[in-house]
Amino acid sequence: DGGITQSPKYLFRKEGQNVTLSCEQNLNHDAMYWYRQDPGQGLRLIYYSQIVNDFQKGDIAEGYSVSREKKESFPLTVTSAQKNPTAFYLCASSTDLTLSYGYTFGSGTRLTVV
Amino acid sequence: EDKVVQSPLSLVVHEGDTVTLNCSYEVTNFRSLLWYKQEKKAPTFLFMLTSSGIEKKSGRLSSILDKKELFSILNITATQTGDSAIYLCAPGIQGAQKLVFGQGTRLTINP
């Protein structure tokens, strides 16, 4: 079955360490997105990519980095520069750039930094 | 700056009640408005609205968009405990090809 796979589901890291969250999709979608969700808040856009080897900053890109070397994969690195990295991270993809069908979401990764 | 405000932020009702969730938005290059339901992890798609005044329905859920007032509502009739979730509204931005999400409304249905 087609879908988006995020791994791992839970991740614990010590403060000051970089960590990479995986997002893979087999839907043949062009666009991919990373959002962060904090308790009591909606989803905030970190980065998004419309084509391979190209990506744009979202509203809260500071302290994060991404790459899009393959259409299927859009990993997110949370760097030590991110001041408050503990959050729930959601990856999404879209079949077309007009968003006529909205997003398909992964199941998320909950990152806890101690 | 794009802005999406949902209200109420939290709502607790009894099974069988009808609820109305609100979403107001101020975004540049508006294309559409989407509603999602988030129960545990991944949000699931409910509706996409592009035209004013045309109600979309799916079972007990319905939604309508007012592009003049920059407003959308999501109605749920005869609520069930399975409707308990966070409901997210998200305007789609033409050109940037992205969704901007509100804070969400946490709906709790008590038996």
Would you give an account of this structure?
The complex is a heterodimer of chains A (114) and B (111). Chain A has 114 residues and is mostly beta strands. In chain A, 0% of the residues lie in helices and 49% in strands. Chain A has no helices and 11 strands. The model of chain A has no long low-confidence stretch (mean pLDDT 91). In chain B, the strands form 2 sheets. In chain B, strands 2, 4, 5, 9, 10 and 11 form a 6-stranded mixed sheet that branches. Chain B starts with a strand and ends with a strand. Chain B is mainly beta and 111 residues long. Chain B is built from no helices and 11 strands. The radius of gyration of chain B is 13 Å and the shape is globular. Chain A binds chain B through residues 31, 33, 35, 40-45, 48, 50, 58, 88, 90, 94, 97-103, 105-108, and chain B through 4, 6, 9, 31-32, 34, 36, 41-45, 48, 88, 90, 92, 94, 97-104.
Write the layout of secondary structure elements.
The complex is a heterodimer of chains A (114) and B (111).
Chain A lengths: L3 E4 L2 E4 L5 E7 L5 E7 L5 E9 L2 E4 L6 E3 L9 E3 L8 E8 L9 E2 L3 E5 L1
Parallel strand pairs in A: 2-11
Antiparallel strand pairs in A: 1-3, 3-8, 4-5, 4-9, 5-6, 7-8, 9-10, 9-11
Chain B lengths: L2 E5 L2 E5 L4 E8 L3 E9 L5 E6 L6 E3 L2 E6 L4 E6 L8 E9 L4 E2 L5 E6 L1
Parallel strand pairs in B: 2-11
Antiparallel strand pairs in B: 1-3, 3-8, 4-5, 4-9, 6-7, 7-8, 9-10, 9-11
